[in-house]
# Entry
Amino acid sequence: MNKLLFGGIIINVTGVLVQYYVTCKRELWFFANQINMNYNNDDIDIGKFIHEKSYSRENKEIKFDNMVFDYVKNKNDLTIFEVKKSSSLTIGARYQLYFYLYNMRNCGKDIKGVLVYPKERKREEIRLTDEIIQEIDEIIEDIKRVVNLKTPPKAIKKPYCKGCSFFELCMV
Ligand code: SF4
# Structure
């Protein structure tokens, strides 16, 4: 179900595709069609540094199926952590984590997700609901449609377009 047919090849729907879907369907299309812009983005370097330095003692990326968890606590219940640079744009990170919880929902344990913002010393707990499960089902189906479009969806101006590598291409 989490697989899609793309250019005659079956690929996995991943957390990154879900993240792009909720932030910008046009960027999702570029990413899935392997169209990249060369650029230096300090935000990405800072994010990578925080990612590497935060929780360095216990943090190990855990690869499971088509997912990469930043950090997991597996005790009586299962907690999946996602470390982010800033809480200013959380929708993509939140849905990526929902997608992980969605995939793990039948693991036999109570599950929850935690978004962690080390720089701000903040964390936000999220849980899966029936409504979110239905929404993720719909998102997965629509990702299949969007990535197989012949041309990218129209550019729609968003508050974060200026920080996007496709900004000059989109001219929004
Ligand atoms: S510049 Fe804006 S519209 Fe264009 S890909 Fe980036 S986020 Fe999407």
